[in-house]
Amino acid sequence: MPPNRQRQLLPAAVIAIALAGCGSLNYPGPSALDGNFPAQGPIIPDTALNLTRSMQIPLDKVVAWGLYAGAAWLILDPLAPNWEIEQANFPDRHYHLSLKMKRLYSGGAGEARVVFHQRAKELMRQNGYDTYAVVEYTEGLESSLLGSQRVAQGVIQLTRR
Fold first, then answer.
1. pLDDT in tens, 99-111
2. Which of 27, 120, 134, 146 has the fewest CB atoms nearer than 10 Å to its CB?
């Protein structure tokens, strides 16, 4: 499984483990999770977490906000890279780089040129060249039903001094 997908599944796994832990607690009454399904009461017990002597938070609100936070994490995935890079090798040490930004993002909208040059420098170092020249570079937006997506394309040529 790719690391990016593992990061997406982490919040869901934490929520599942937390909900499984609720079943191991012995709550009295019809809301107890003793394995008899369908249960007579709600799945989430009608109880509250005591934070201090004067402050309590209902357990159902904790679970609901946890689910909201998990869904937001899966959609935005703040640890995922903002840009996806595809490259193609051409003759005479030319490389075509195509960048696409993720559709839902929380920053990084103006960094296409920086990411392009970072990838060009990586290619230069990996292949043992001294420098590179940008032959062509464009930025734009691709519109679709789900909204616009930032894109950038360019061609570099690796050179020696």
1. 999 877 767 778 8
2. 146
